[in-house]
Write a structure and sequence with these properties.
single chain; about 150 residues; alpha+beta; 6-stranded mixed sheet; 2 helices; about 25% strand; globular
Length: about 150
């Protein structure tokens, strides 16, 4: 059975879809963009937009009972190819040593510079009782020192 997952710590969907859906041991997170939980958007550099976007992903992962350490696949969409370096640096900051599979696509995004969707593996009953660390490392843009 599939179960929708949602949290008020990430923006509400803009259309007829869930923030995420659990299907067995997997959680599929819908595309996240750099919007605040109330839906607001303030254009920023690619690094700041990436941190906010991945913070939203982390909030949804936590609502599902996991964290960024449970992400097994990410698809990233960038508005322009020259954003890749700055995006990749912020992405690495959030994920640290954890390296999920990833595809990065240059897409015609409206307004925002980055969007990500993800798949998490969250065993309902882990065989050994352990799971990878779930806490995320992302600092939202306003948490960065000036």
């Amino acid at each position: 059975m599939n179960a929708p997952i949602g949290t008020d710590r990430a923006p509400s969907p803009a259309g007829h879809y869930a923030q995420a859906v659990r299907a067995g041991d997997f959680v599929y997170v819908s595309g996240q963009v750099p919007r605040t939980p109330d839906g607001g958007y303030t254009p920023a550099d690619v690094g700041a937009e990436t941190l906010l976007t991945l913070g939203n992903l982390a909030a949804i992962a936590e609502a599902a009972g996991g964290g960024l350490g449970d992400v097994v696949k990410v698809t990233a969409y960038l508005a322009r190819p020259e954003y890749f370096g700055e995006f990749n640096a912020a992405y690495a900051e959030c994920f640290g040593e954890h390296r999920p599979a990833r595809t990065t696509v240059v897409a015609g995004l409206r307004e925002v510079k980055v969007e990500v969707d993800a798949v998490l593996h969250l065993p309902v009953s882990p065989a050994d009782g352990t799971r990878p660390p779930g806490g995320h490392r992302c600092r939202l843009p306003d948490e960065h020192e000036p």
